[in-house]
Amino acid sequence: MSSPSDFRSLIHQPKAVWAVAFASVVAFMGIGLVDPILPAISADLNATPTQAELLFTSYLLVTGIAMLFTSWVSGRIGPRATLLVGLALVVIFATLAGSSDTVGTIIGLRAGWGLGNALFISTALATIVGAASGGAANAIILYEAALGLGIAIGPLLGGALGSVSWRAPFFGTAALMAIAFVALAVLLRGDSAPRVKVPFSAPFRALGHPGLRLLAFAALLYNIGFFTLLAYSPFPLGFDEIGLGLTFFGWGVALAITSVLVAPQLTSRLPRTLVLSATLALLAIDLAVGSLVVGTPAALVVVIVVGGLLLGVLNTVLTESVMEVTELPRSVASSSYSSVRFLGGAAAPPLAAWLAGIAGDWLPYAVAAVAVLAASVIILAGRPLLAKVDGMGAEPADVEAEAISVGDAA
Questions:
Q1: Where is the Major facilitator superfamily (MFS) profile domain (predicted)?
Q2: Is there a smaller number of Cβ atoms within 10 Å at the N or the C end of the chain?
């Protein structure tokens, strides 16, 4: 049990640490912020559901590509400059998106938003660890708390602001990120984290490792399930912006709890490949149930929140496994893995809308269930290639934190 002195040590941090933590909350809010306003954007801009879903696709596709280069950029311009450039890009593109009148323009601007978020998220943890007082453990607790708050609050804020106008969440994000930019520019003096120069080709060459490649492909299939649940569900639910915000607030809270608290407990007791294959199978069942109850909003809400519980475990354990399967630097392995898995996330939302147009709202969930089940089979079949990731025992705190942050950045 933590003592009062431990708590005082945790909260007595330099102002720069709190500035980065605040910016981290806002950055992770962006994951679910647009979810509650997708139907409103579709209605107000005369966009099809498939076009509205491309707001996720452009964001995730550019984020995935950018992850291949963020370590290279940070190693050359420094973490502080990387953070500020990332924040500035989000401010610019979120403001422009809120001012736009066509869905095609917003889709393009969300791509720029994804680039900014990739630069910020990939650098924030190392910056907090370098600047915090009381050791790395305190820094990691603060970062995980910021991450959990952002994931949970994003949909809720998006729903609240979206009830005023679908433009409001974009302007709200831009305003919060502008405050974070000024705070970091003033309070973060110099680079608290060292520059680590990574060769430009390193993330590409990393995918030559069989175990890393297997995990990346399994994660690509898994992300089809993840983003079918997250990005397509607002349409069959049929709720207003507040209702959608509350639904995905529950999803975000569930995901944050299991990623931070449950996943470490499971991997300290069971082999990671067993945790992954079993949880993927449970997620496939959850999605299959979703295909059966999609016409009943209350039941679909339960499916979404249960999915959040499972997604939190999978995000963290998959990224832990990526860090353990090779001898490569963790930043390189994570970048390579993330770039591939984001392809699944980018493809899933428009694919789900297209499938629903063919046969109804049940089909996207059924196809997602098959994709996730295939990921479970791949993990089981590939266990000989993943023997290294099944070492028992608790992870070092920095490995655990990076797994949570990179895993939930999707």
A1: 16-386
A2: N
Q: DSSP E strands: which ranges in 150-219?
A: none
Which of residues 232 and 187 earns the better pLDDT score? 232
Residues in the chain: 410
Domain 9-408, CATH 3.40.50.1820 — does that match? no
Domain ranges of the chain: 9-408
Which residue has 């789900």 as its token pair?
A: 352
CA distance 316 to 309: 12
Tell me how far apart the 2 most distant CA atoms of the chain are, in Å. Answer: 60
Tell me the C-alpha to C-alpha distance, in Å, between residue 204 and each of 33, 72, 215: 31, 12, 15
Closest CA relative to residue 224, chosen from 87, 373, 82: 373
Q: Say which residue the tokens 């910056």 belong to.
A: 127
The encoded tokens of residue 261 equal 């608290």
Q: What share of the chain is helix, strand, coil (3-state, %, to 5)?
A: 80, 0, 20
Cα–Cα distance measured from residue 118 to residue 207, given in angstroms and rounded to the nearest whole number: 20
Query: Is the distance from CB of 68 to CB of 200 less than 8 angstroms?
Result: no
The pLDDT tens digits of the residues spanning 108-121 come to 999 999 999 888 88
Q: What is the mean pLDDT of the chain?
A: 86
Neighbours of 138 (CB within 10 A): 21
Closest by CA position to 26, among listed 176, 155, 203? 176
> Is residue 399 pLDDT above 60, yes or no?
no
- The closest alpha carbon to 331, from 322, 344, 340, belongs to 322
Contacts of 21 by beta carbon, 8 Å cutoff, 6+ apart: 128, 142, 143, 145, 146
pLDDT at position 128: 76
